């Protein structure tokens, strides 16, 4: 009913969170690396411009502007390289945190499964002891009813049963 330990580990929210942080840190390396490439953007503006408020409704007060912008990361002073390195270090940090989370989870799962098995063994032993005490009580009662033993023996086996 509990499942395989690896499935139990995958269901844990702490492992899922650590994995998500690791994936995010890995993606940030790609984002930082993308800054090495040139970017072309297209911008535009639209509006009104007039010296007198009365002229605002005429077509000549409309203004429009559209134009491209080009970004070339030629002289960045090493900022992009440093951002990439920082992203890589963060990714390494998240990888270590993920490993620690998984190891801690495995330890907790192993402890829980060991405790569960110990409780199952204890329950089995208690059930066997109960069955043996019931049998002993039945034998003592039958022995008393047949006159082979005294009632004190019946009471002591009944007490052991309870």
TrEMBL record:
It holds the Pfam family OEP. It is a lipid-anchor. One of its GO terms (molecular function) is efflux transmembrane transporter activity. Gene3D superfamilies: Outer membrane efflux proteins (OEP) (1.20.1600.10). It is found in: Cell outer membrane. Belongs to the outer membrane factor (OMF) (TC 1.B.17) family. PANTHER family: OUTER MEMBRANE CATION EFFLUX PROTEIN (PTHR30203), OUTER MEMBRANE PROTEIN-RELATED (PTHR30203:SF25). This is RND transporter. It comes from Serratia marcescens.
């Amino acid at each position: 009913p509990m499942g395989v330990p690896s499935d139990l580990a995958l269901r844990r929210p702490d492992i899922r969170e650590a994995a998500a942080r690791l994936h995010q840190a890995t993606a940030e390396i790609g984002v930082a690396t993308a800054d090495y490439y040139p970017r072309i953007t297209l911008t535009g503006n639209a509006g009104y411009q007039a010296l007198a408020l009365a002229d605002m409704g005429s077509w000549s007060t409309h203004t429009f502007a559209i134009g491209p912008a080009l970004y070339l990361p030629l002289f960045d002073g090493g900022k992009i390289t440093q951002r990439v390195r920082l992203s890589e270090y963060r990714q390494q940090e998240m990888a270590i945190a993920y490993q620690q989370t998984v190891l801690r989870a495995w330890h907790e799962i192993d402890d829980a499964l060991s405790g569960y098995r110990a409780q199952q063994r204890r329950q089995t032993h208690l059930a066997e002891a109960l069955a043996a005490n019931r049998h002993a009580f039945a034998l003592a009662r039958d022995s008393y009813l047949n006159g082979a033993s005294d009632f004190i023996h019946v009471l002591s086996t009944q007490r052991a049963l309870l």
